[in-house]
DNA sequence: TAGTTATGTAACAGAATGCAACAAAATCTA
DNA sequence: TAGATTTTGTTGCATTCTGTTACATAACTA
């Protein structure tokens, strides 16, 4: 599908900011909205693929908005709430939400849910569910994005940890582009394969890079694939071929 | 989803007429039934997405029918009753109804409830339309939702315990979606009987997952089907094909 | 060259997960 | 119904994963 357009509805500016930024970093178009009026103007104004709706909207009631939206439009809705009590969740479903997530949420979880709801919506529209079946080839190596398997040039399976896999994915998505540690960290948390409860601090990325090098570099001391850009960060420095299987 | 097929069960012809007409005007296929015999013939004869069940059915007892339906089929049920007393409502839930509405009801309210229950059923383990006798195929394996049989890639029967089967069902209903332990536990309890007696505590889900892995993973140490999402929970990580038999 | 800054990495610690062993509960059987 | 068997949750320990820290080394600057 085209780039998903996600409406972020929250009356707290900070939260709105945080969520829109996060979604944008992960390839979505995020549309912020603080109240029902802004929601309507967005929905009436253009395509919206998904609504992330806070339950508590100051004086307005997210549940009510959800109910109304559902009655009029057929846009998928994920309710977001600080209250994780089960009855809240139930209420969310009862008014027609497609999913429910409690604040504070794990960014991975949010992204996974967004993906899931979008793909579900897409599937019901097209009936055909094509998964991500790309395979990446670089410098003799193979990475199967579907299974997550990594094969060395001599066709030996190499086991990467979740975090290492996530790093590899980020790099594969940005070949020849030097990435700062911060960029890597942000995208790591987003990839959905790797987890980290909170933002990575300190030298975590350096260490992670080192670990990945130990697994995929012939000579980790002289990296050919994952090179250092002194003063900047790291680059994936070889060409990539992508095959659709 | 396709047009919902709703079974309207009421012994009063006027009320039946009114409800079926109303539902049809609102885009559903309404199937009238006056007693348990007619209910059975409809359910056995074709797909039914929701049952609107009157509590008072002349000499029969709606609650009993509800209980039986719940035990055999996994079709969503909304109880309808002229008695709005609280104990009645409670009884409705206790026998496994998904919702409860009191007569006389606001037609829009009925519609909202119907939609809510349908969408909830769609998203959660709605895979269990036993009557439809679906069979799931994944990674060489076969799971027959009707008989509960599980066949390995080499066509050997594998015996799963009730709990393991329930887990498999929850996973099959949510492929590629990382589920938290809490979500799994909730859905597990829901799949069995209408109640959720006690939240599974501790590491029960972990252990259960391990047990299922031992039965359906070629190499339980390196799960290909039921993968761990560190910090989140577990995912059913392979594609599923569903055949109607 | 000496000093400064950036990077590599081993060692450590805390957390998450896997799992065997046990116990309690449910189910079956004679 | 008593006893055997199966199922299922709990617990404790082992293992794996991942970020932090400390120090060594490399690169850069003046």
Brief descriptors of the model:
homodimer; 245 residues; alpha/beta; Rossmann fold; Arc Repressor Mutant, subunit A; 2 domains; five-stranded parallel beta sheet; five-stranded antiparallel beta sheet; 8 helices; 15 strands; 40% helix; elongated; DNA-binding
Textual characterization of the structure:
- The structure is a homodimer.
- With about 240 residues, chain A is α/β, with parallel strands linked by helices.
- Chain A folds into two domains: about 5-125, Rossmann fold (3-Layer(aba) Sandwich), CATH 3.40.50; about 135-245, Arc Repressor Mutant, subunit A (Orthogonal Bundle).
- The first copy, chain A, contains eight helices and 15 strands.
- Chain A has helices at about 15-25, 35-45, 60-70, 85-95, 105-125, 160-175, 180-190, 205-215; strands at about 5-10, 30-35, 50-55, 55, 60, 75-80, 100, 135-140, 140-145, 150, 155-160, 180, 225-230, 235, 240-245.
- In chain A, helix 6 crosses helix 7 and helix 6 packs across helix 8.
- The longest helix of chain A is centred in the middle third of the chain and has 20 residues, at about 105-125.
- At the A-B interface, helix 3, helix 4 and helix 5 of A face helix 5 of B.
- Chain A binds a DNA duplex (30 and 30 nucleotides) through helix 8.
């Amino acid at each position: 599908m085209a780039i998903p357009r996600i409406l972020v509805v929250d009356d707290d500016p900070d939260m709105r900011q945080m969520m829109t930024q996060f979604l944008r970093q992960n390839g979505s178009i995020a549309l912020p909205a603080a109240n029902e009026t802004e929601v309507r103007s967005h929905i009436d104004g253009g395509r919206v693929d998904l609504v992330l709706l806070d339950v508590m909207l100051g004086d307005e009631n997210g549940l009510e908005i959800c109910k109304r939206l559902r009655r009029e439009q057929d846009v998928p809705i994920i309710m977001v709430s600080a209250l994780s009590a089960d009855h809240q969740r139930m209420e969310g479903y009862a008014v027609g939400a497609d999913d429910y997530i409690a604040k504070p949420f794990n960014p991975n979880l949010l992204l996974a849910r967004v993906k899931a709801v979008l793909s579900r919506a897409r599937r019901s529209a097209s009936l055909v569910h094509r998964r991500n079946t790309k395979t990446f080839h670089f410098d003799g190596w193979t990475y199967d994005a579907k299974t997550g398997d990594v094969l060395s040039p001599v066709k030996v399976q190499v086991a990467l940890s979740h975090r290492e896999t996530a790093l590899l994915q980020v790099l594969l998505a940005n070949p020849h582009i030097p990435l700062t540690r911060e960029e890597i960290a942000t995208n790591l948390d987003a990839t959905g394969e790797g987890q980290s409860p909170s933002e990575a601090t300190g030298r975590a990325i350096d260490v992670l890079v080192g670990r990945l090098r130990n697994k995929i570099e012939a000579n980790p001391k002289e990296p050919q694939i994952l090179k250092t850009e002194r003063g900047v960060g790291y680059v994936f420095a070889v060409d990539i071929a992508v095959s659709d299987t």
